[in-house]
Amino acid sequence: MSKPLREATVLAHPNIALIKYWGKRDDRLNLPCAGSIAVTVGPLGTRTRVRWHVDGPRTKAPDRVLLNGSLADEGTQKRVVRVLDLFRARAGVHDWQAEVESENDFPTAAGLASSASGMAALVMAANEAGGFRFSRQALSVLARQGSGSGCRSLHGGFVEWLKGEREDGEDSHAVALAPASHWPLAVAIGVVDAGPKPVSSRDAMVRTFQTSPYHTGWVTRVERDLPGARRAVAERDFLTLAALAEGSCLAMFGSMLGAVPPVLYWQAGSVAAMHAVWAWRREGVPCFFTLDAGPNIKVFCPAEALDEVVARLAAIPGIRQVLRGQVGGPAQVLEQVEQT
Ligand code: PMV
Predict the structure, then answer these.
(1) Is this model's pTM higher than 0.85 or not?
(2) Is 46 a pocket residue for ligand 1 (Cβ < 6 Å)?
């Protein structure tokens, strides 16, 4: 191992799944019941700085975690420390204490996967700051344990999270399917509610897995959709991807509706926007939607159609704000500092 650098800042983008991840075969390790395919979305991002204190037994000072300028709440702090503990165990540096500062430039906890970009940025910053040489695959395995979808945000462009077979989860990580340059799609994100969601994706997923009679059908559906989605991405076949992505999204929500008690993230604006997207497509505007564990809607389109889609989305009652994104690059180091 090279001499430890003490501090690094990493930028990671959120990702939006087209073939969704919903349900875990192992809750502790975040091992999914099926694979998933997502798009990395820039310029939205999480910037995370990790500073390692390597000079004393860690018991003297716990890790310090700042999120968007304030001390992280207990739940977030625990999740971050858990991932740092996994990192320390893998790196063999049990005594190192971390100072983490993370900023999102988009609403946190609004179904925009801030936990995904956050976990990807965290593990990569921990790696770079310490001067370690863990591969993106190893970092993806670590990020997955903080937030399942986080394993996909290490890569740019179009990304697949492999379900894996192993019980220890070492083969359940993301792989790059195609870089951002392969297909410069854009996305309009219609914010219906930027507040925290009523049920976390973690809890809703467990509930669906344990109580929904539709969950097994959902998993079968994902396995069936993955090869077609891979092909549609490789061939830049927009309409095929549109049908697969909307179908996967709606089937995921179908599985949640069957949970006890049911989970419903949509609000009126979400539903109005879904109907509108279908109408626009019938008119010839190339676009399709997807939603995650929240009411906000993401509408994908070719880059040249983005202005039109943003204007139309903004006019829908219940859509409070529209963010613009495009297929983004991999997690990257912004700064590295070696202290004396
Ligand atoms: O990784 P989590 O716990 O944030 O769950 C993500 C779940 C969805 O966003 C709804 C689907 C997905 O594949 O990202």
Answers:
(1) yes
(2) no
